[in-house]
Amino acid sequence: MRPLTFARPKPMIPVANKPILERLLLECVNAGISEFVFIVGYKDASIRNYFGDGSRWKIRISYLVQNEATGTASAVKLAQRIVGDRFIVLNGDAIFAKEDIERLASSQSTAIAVQEVNDPAGLGIIEVENGMVKRIVEKPELPASKLANAGAYLFTHTIFQAIDRTEKSPRGQYEITRSLEILIEDGFGISCQPVENWLTVSYPWELLSTNEKILSGMESRCDGVIEPGAHIESLCIVGKDSIIRSGSYIVGPVIIGDDCDIGPNCYIRGSTAIGNRSRIGASVEIKNSIIMSGSKIPHLSYIGDTVIGENCNFGAGTKVANLRFDHRNIRCGHVDTGLRKFGAIIGDNVQSGVNVSLNPGTLIGDNVLIWPGCVVGGEIECGAVVRGMNQP
Q1: Contact yes or no for 10/46 (Cβ under 8 A)
Q2: Catalytic choice (157, 299, 327, 334)
Q3: Which domains does the chain have, with CATH numbers?
Q4: What does the alpha-carbon distance between residue 280 and residue 296 come to, in Å, rounded to a whole number?
Q5: Catalytic residue flag (residue 231)
Q6: Confidence (pLDDT) at 334
Q7: Is the dihedral of CA 89, 92, 93, 99 positive or negative?
Q8: DSSP 8-state secondary structure symbol assigned to residue 328
Q9: pLDDT digits (tens, 9 = 90+) for 282-318
Q10: In whole angstroms, how far apart are CA 289 and each of 3, 179, 295, 308?
Q11: What integer best gives the mean pLDDT of the chain?
């Protein structure tokens, strides 16, 4: 997920203007859950500072620290003394719907959430016999099932006995799936709980499809000011103290955060999220993108199918290309995104001069300065200064 995780843990990356973890928390709260334990580690201060004790949501949040990333089983073990006899474990970087959480919570014994997928490659696969889990295989070369482990569990205290007998995997991790296998070997039945709505992000560009799905389920709201002459079509959310200036043309679903200045005469297209304190100026077109808080795209720019971090500032005429001339899939780094249309992933505090062009699949780290007139592609390291043509 780099460069987006240089400054924040993955669960704090925003989709539709809220961190992934908050989206998950809200679904849990709507499902009736009121007590939470957050197992934190990497850059945990950002999570603690944002969520506090949970009182903002009328819930209670406790924190435990996993100092070394030694696996999910060791993370769960930390909570042994403070959880009840039945408790849910969720990966903090995925989003489940309220209804799926309710069904999982209704299980009376150990259960694992699963979803049937078309392409099981690279996933943990669940093999089932007579409705119960027979085997759990991590990333098999030849999957025997299309049921993927969704990373959500209902546990009883028996899980801790299995964790105590769990050895490190070849990856050097204490895997919770191995603990579950120990339970199966001991004769404990583990049921499958299908989930219908499971949003998970493995690569930065997958934030865009997740953002689109969340936005499509929201309702229009305006807590700001829309000047006469602005046109808004379809679903649009405008945050507190934001202004949509005359001549702006917005086609939803679009969300605009608090204290934003939009327009005049800009074009914001569907599946776009613009974070708090952002500025979108005249003759700017934005499509299917995530613009994080405090970023400014003041004038004469095009941003398509792109994720932009916090506090970026683009000079006039900055343009992001999102389609190859040969119409082949776009690669980002060494990975085929599977997308024909994809722009760039841009970290925090990036500044471009006037008339900068970014090629499809460009990956730019935090605190990068791009001089005027540059054509940029490939991967740019954090803190770099780009002074000329930079292409892979």
Answers
A1: no
A2: 299
A3: 10-202 (3.90.550.10), 209-386 (2.160.10.10)
A4: 6
A5: no
A6: 85
A7: positive
A8: P
A9: 999 999 999 999 999 999 999 999 999 999 999 999 9
A10: 16, 40, 13, 8
A11: 92
